[in-house]
Description:
Structural class: alpha+beta
Amino acid sequence: MTYILRSVPQLSSPHMPEPNDLPKFPNIVPDSIRETRFWVLENDDFKTEEEISTLLGMMYDHPEDDFILFTPKTGTINSLVSSAIGSAAIVVVETKGHYYPHPKFKRDYIRIHDATVSLDWEREVLSQGNMHFRHELKLSERARRQFEMQQFLEMQKTANANPLKLEPNFMGIGLDLRKAYTWLKQQLKK
């Protein structure tokens, strides 16, 4: 599955231009500036359960990011994504219409309304009639708690596997015989 990270474009020249050559922001102070990062997803990205698990892992690891799924107006949400939504692992926060594939850039969608068309290329895109819906996806709190519990249990397993105890014992080192027995069995199996 291909995930595309969309962020602010950076200068690609090998050297930085002189400060006087950089474009200047108008002499105004904006009310607010919001920087976001989002992942563009399409129905074709999900063909296996493993790809859905990868998506859930990405949503867990990056809770501040937006995950946007684009589906054709004539189609439905991918069946694998729908089952994740049905099992309450993923929540659709908002769905918006009137998004069209950008004519020049892959995996880029632009919002165009009939009433606000001002450019010729926008009219051309509208005439093709390939409208998509934009679904904002989030990891459900229930799924987040399950992931956190899995991590906690995994940490407990590794922490409890060590047979040595550093506590008041003979010369400051103790040995848990039960843990030592299971640890020894695991080492001999390798």
